[in-house]
């Protein structure tokens, strides 16, 4: 059986507007963040997409986004899709983060000496968590609200590449088809007024 997974990033938060690192720590959605979530909801309604189950990371910003998008209070939280831990850089200005190595497209293991996570480990835990949910249920359509670095880590784990400059803005949605252990990214939806859709 092929499942549909809609994996999306949370809406804009206070720390996002302040340019502060937000990984394991948390901050609330802004009014704009709530509006972004409702715009994503509008996309799902327009496309007649419904969910058999709704999940979020254990962090407030993701859970609140999931509730706004799905209009469900019963959202199942999953630790495995929480955001990457940035160690001692948590809540600090983003400008203090280490720079990517030449040619790299992620922090790789640069945060590990500072008590943070390796992006590859983040991708592995995210995939393991999603696999566990898929194997334990017969749900055909799932919404999971997660985080930018976690989604990027998962895509690295799945060996998915993106065109240069394309990433996960707030409330970006990755539409996957999952058959057994095979993940296929079908679309990246950016919830702007015109719903930018990139097909893969």
Could you give a quick summary of the protein structure above?
With 200 residues, this protein is an alpha/beta fold. 30% of the residues lie in helices and 21% in strands. The model has no long low-confidence stretch (mean pLDDT 95).
Describe the structure.
- This protein is an alpha/beta fold and 200 residues long.
- It has a single domain (2-199), classed as Rossmann fold, CATH 3.40.50.
- Helix content is 30%, strand content 21%.
- The protein has five helices and seven strands.
- A seven-stranded mixed beta sheet has the order 3-2-4-1-5-6-7.
- Helix 3 links the parallel strand 2 (53-57) and strand 3 (76-78).
- The longest helix has 18 residues, at 119-136.
- The protein is globular, with a radius of gyration of 16 Å.
- The two termini are 21 Å apart.
- The model has no long low-confidence stretch (mean pLDDT 95).
